[in-house]
Amino acid sequence: MVAQTDTKRGTFNILILVSACLAIYFGLYEDKTLFMFLKPLTTILVIALLLFAPRKRNVRLGNMVTIALVFCLLGDVLLLFESYFLFGLVAFLITHILFSVAFIQYKGFYKNWISFLILFGIAGVLFFWLKPGLGDLLLPVAIYVMIITFMAWQGVGLYLRERNNAHALMAVGVLCFMLSDTLLAIAKFKTPFYLSGPLILATYWMSISLIANATYSIAKGGKETV
After folding, report:
1. Is 222 helix (H, G, I), strand (E, B) or coil?
2. What is the pTM of this model?
3. Cα 121 to Cα 4: distance, rounded to the nearest angstrom
């Protein structure tokens, strides 16, 4: 049974990788139709990975992360349309709130002030650097930055508390989410840069895939290398 679930997990991870690479390729070469199909499909595959995960332990964590990923999917679809950017921002804001709730329900509120100062210090510097280009989105972006940084703080805290491979993946995953959103903010509010689209998508799908795989391992009750 364990071998079957591991095989299924490996298959989903391969499908996610292939779909993500194809989405990035078609996005880079401006095949809008295929990109608009493959972008949500990749996130759907990440959600499917968790839907097929064993639920031996920490069922609430698995369920909450799955719901958060559904809001990622909603955000993906909304961000396909420039006029829906703010709605996409709200969808991802809800994602980060749900991730935060999931992490706190799982192991409690984490209070390491060193990691707090590092993460919020970096976020603050980036926000004030981007501030001149934010315009009417100043307040929504400020709220978003605080929420995603709080989420990353709690996600990193899981590893600092547990010190095992599954939770290390969770920490890397939430940091990749911060990186992806930072790249998106720079490209949108500061200056577009070479290969910004592929880099944003690659770090985004890496982040949610790592979070999903970490949750899979935790739900299975293992602490092994994922």
Report:
1. coil
2. 0.93
3. 44
**Closest-CA residue to 95 (of 114, 69, 121):** 69
For residues 22 and 20, give the distance between their C-alpha atoms in angstroms, rounded to a whole number.
5
Amino acid identity, position 214: A
Are the C-beta atoms of residues 15 and 45 closer than 8 Å to each other?
yes
Backbone angles phi, psi at 112, to 5 degrees: -90, 110
DSSP assignment, residue 81?
S
pLDDT digits (tens, 9 = 90+) for 105-137: 999 999 999 999 999 999 999 999 999 999 999
Count CB neighbours of 191 within 10 A: 9
CB atoms closer than 10 angstroms to residue 128: 9
Q: Rounded to whole angstroms, how far apart are CA atoms 67 and 95?
A: 8
Assess contact for 120 and 153: CB atoms under 8 A.
yes
Kindly report, residue by residue over 196-206, the tens digit of the pLDDT. 999 999 999 99
